[in-house]
Amino acid sequence: MRSFTLSTKWTALFVLFTALCCLFTPTVTVKHELFKTCDQAGFCKRNRAFADSASATGWETPYKIAPESLSWKNGQLQGTILKTINKNGETVRLLITISFLESGSARVTIDEEKRQKGEIDLRHNSKARKERYNEAESWAIVGGLELSKTAVEFRDAATSTVKYGPDGKFEAVITYAPFGIDFKRDSATQIKFNDRGMLNVEHWRPKIDKPEPEKKEGEEAPAPEVQTGEDESTWWDESFGGSTDSKPKGPESVGLDITFPGYAHVYGIPEHAGPLSLKETRGGSGNHEEPYRLYNADVFEYIMDSPMTLYGAIPFMQAHSKDSTVGVFWLNAAETWIDIIKQKEAHNPLSLGIGSRIDTKTHWFSESGLIDVFVFLGPTPKDVTKAYGELTGYTQLPQEFAIAYHQCRWNYNTDEDVKDVDRKMSKHQIPYDVIWLDIEYTHEKEYFTWDPLQFPDPIGMLKQLDKSERKLVAIIDPHIKNNGYHIVEDLKKKDLAVHNKDGNIYEGWCWPGSSHWIDCFSPAAIKWWVSLFKYDTFKGTMHNLFIWNDMNEPSVFNGPETTMPKDNLHYGNWEHRDVHNINGMTFHNATYQALLERKKGEIRRPFVLTRSFYAGSQRLGAMWTGDNQASWDHLAAAFPMVLNNGIAGYPFAGADVGGFFGNPEKDLLTRWYQAGAFYPFFRGHAHIDTRRREPYLAGEPYTGIITRALRLRYALLPAWYTAFHEASVDGTPIIRPQYFEYPGDEAGFAIDDQFFVGSTGLLAKPVVKEGADSVDIYLPDEEIYYDYFDYQKYSGRGSKTISAPLEKIPLLMQGGHIIPRKDRPRRSSGLMKWDPYTLVIALNKEGSAKGELYVDDGETFDYQSGAYIHRSFEFKDGVLASMDIGKKGKLTDKYLKTMKGVRVERIIIVGAPKEWEGKKSVKTGKGEAGLEFHGEEGGKASWAVVRNPGVAIGENWKIEF
Ligand code: NOJ
């Protein structure tokens, strides 16, 4: 039984205290005592102890495949693993399925036979489901499960070998005893399962209540019975911070070691604040002491460089070496921890370390659920990200406004306030697309209502925004105020809320005070949620209103670790423990579905921002990194976090520009805007207690510099949108770390403060250090790089110093690329729709360049029927050509007609050949256009400009220089 019950009064005080902390804490640091360390999480402690035993000499894994149980059918190997559970040799039967997929990925699933058959008894007459949770797949996976038709299996007395993947180059060698799997590519081992013997499936067992040993008079109390050596103290219940978790199923964790031989770097497993290249976690100088934790939580005032959990979880990891990238995806929705160690392995004992290689050894364990792991054998980072995306889906192609600038704060106080900010942004000619409303817009935190005094005319407000194609995003959280208002009454009546362990509606505390939580695992709850967003239900909304989902970890102020008790029950009677990390995604999904169906016939791409996420959330909208602080270290931490999210398949990411807590100094705010202009999701946001900081308030020179950063983002929107399109079709990150673009260049493997934007060749390193007036940027090759703004040339592999006074963003164009832009400053991206393009051609050493542009209506799903322009540009041998690379669909011609008048207004050629000096014109096919040449000057490249070449963006053409 949960022993922790707060009286209403105390809870109210607690909430007030939490809120006050938010308001008045100037120097802030996480409250460690609110979150478990590994030692305080029973299963984490047990699995680490198990790992230590497994590392000792003489250890033998208790898991063996029963060879006679194996069967092979249609690309799938199935069999029984026998787990020896005591010295008498008694065993428990586990079912293993290894699936080889048509895509070249492999999947290993291990479950318990007894639990699959429902042959277990739960304690306390619990209503919880008996099986191990096996529905994570239905939330995370959307494709790529087709079984291989070409995989073949061979068996001998000790092993089973399967050849699979492209040209049969992949191989899985399954050893029966001790059980282990080696995954190979071109005969070389890339990934090893259970190589260190840490496979652990805590099988179901009944709780045997042993009578208290009797103490006879005059005798010492007998010593407690010696246990099996395992720490059983948290098997049957577990307390932390005043809450007790009843564990009706007893111990049920799963764990496995996964080794990457020859790989010195691993990336992924967001969300953590720390470097892109993950650190070791079992102590030692510069290493973490704790494993990386994945247990979605509202971590107030989170700290830097820490493996502590944050708001979202993607259990996907890439391992990288000079000539190979591989990956694993641990499909489990329960609390998960990952230990990482790196070990030098000498090839030969006499080599004294010369020629030694580094192996990264990881150990994954989750509190409940299945062992369900996907294996990707690369060989490039792009192959791994693509294969992962085939399973979990690619980034949703957002509406174009969503990748422009968002102006948010907690809170814009009235509809007049919103309109005022909107007018002032226009007056100062600062572009923005979206203004946001935080929780205070509601009538006393009742979602789907407006505060009648502060927001008497939401439609008037939305209409003003609509005039300049601007939008509003309003927050809707998953906690529903428990005060009898119509929404909560409906929720209760329809029984669509999460239940507590006794089967009653769960009650906890969040912003509104006492609340219930919608259970978006339930199809009926999703249906109901969808109905709440219809324009005639959510009054005061119209087509330019979109949604922000916050607190969906879920955040529960009086819950254990600020979230829900693990023994709460969801739809289907799954315990919250089993599904926790997916919870946020189910809420995001319900809201996404709702925005698809607001009005019959009106189908626009939804925009929903989420704080909590899981593998697959990339299909539903953007995420942000939560409550950061207005400090330089938080500014610096954001890029590694956003980059990491990108390689874990969720690139539509950003951090609160300016920092959420605290008041940024003006130079910090300015630098943050310059950095934010390179976040795929670009939003300024601030805590309710901070001073107002809309860009026009900063004053000069800051406002001017911020405006230029914003305009840079807007000018480059065609390039950003093209990068989003690429992510939406093959999962390639939008901003890309050095190793991703130059996988063979070891010097770049740990770099996480500079990055490439899409495939544009733009290489950025925004300033994130206080007082810095230059940055050292690393060039990975011998290509020419041009400063984006003044065409200063840099070349030669290695580090280059770029001067970066406050007004300057260090941004280079790599020779060999063509970058599409729109240079006319406007109030919003919507108003740029029909604007002409500028093409910037950065010539490489050979005098050529290539680029791409993707354009569609930026709003609807018509692009799925061919309503888009996809072009490849090439400059070679003095000729610039535009070629169609799109596929034709039923709406192609109609769309192209609407785009007929959209032309190229300017072509800038950076690094223009000297011979062009004196050249006055170029041939455009229809006639001629003027050319203006500027010679090289003091290290700055020569350049030329062609104005009005008279070519349309959607057509094939050639220009001869
Ligand atoms: C927490 C969110 O992280 C923050 O962005 C928001 O302003 C507050 N909740 C209030 O809704």
Automatic annotation (TrEMBL):
Principal EC category:
hydrolase
Signal peptide residues are: 1-29
- GO molecular-function terms, A-Z: alpha-1,4-glucosidase activity; carbohydrate binding
Occurrences of domain Glycoside hydrolase family 31 TIM barrel (ranges): 396-723
Q: Which residues form the DUF5110 domain?
A: 838-892
Q: Which Pfam families match?
A: DUF5110 (PF17137), Gal_mutarotas_2 (PF13802), Glyco_hydro_31_2nd (PF01055), Glyco_hydro_31_3rd (PF21365)
Q: Tell me where in this chain the Glycosyl hydrolase family 31 C-terminal domain is found.
A: 731-819
Q: Where is each Glycoside hydrolase family 31 N-terminal domain found?
A: 96-339
Fetch the SUPFAM superfamilies from UniProt. Answer: (Trans)glycosidases, Galactose mutarotase-like, Glycosyl hydrolase domain
Q: Which GO terms describe its biological process?
A: carbohydrate metabolic process; N-glycan processing
Tell me a GO cellular component.
glucosidase II complex
**Skewed-composition ranges (Basic and acidic residues):** 204-219
Give the record's pathway: Glycan metabolism; N-glycan metabolism
Catalysed reactions, semicolon-separated: Hydrolysis of terminal, non-reducing (1->4)-linked alpha-D-glucose residues with release of alpha-D-glucose
The record ties this protein, via InterPro entries, to: DUF5110, Gal_mutarotase_sf_dom, GH, Glyco_hydro_31_AS, Glyco_hydro_31_C, Glyco_hydro_31_N_dom, Glyco_hydro_31_TIM, Glyco_hydro_b
Q: Which family does it belong to?
A: Belongs to the glycosyl hydrolase 31 family.
Protein name per Swiss-Prot or TrEMBL:
alpha-glucosidase
Species this chain originates from: Cudoniella acicularis
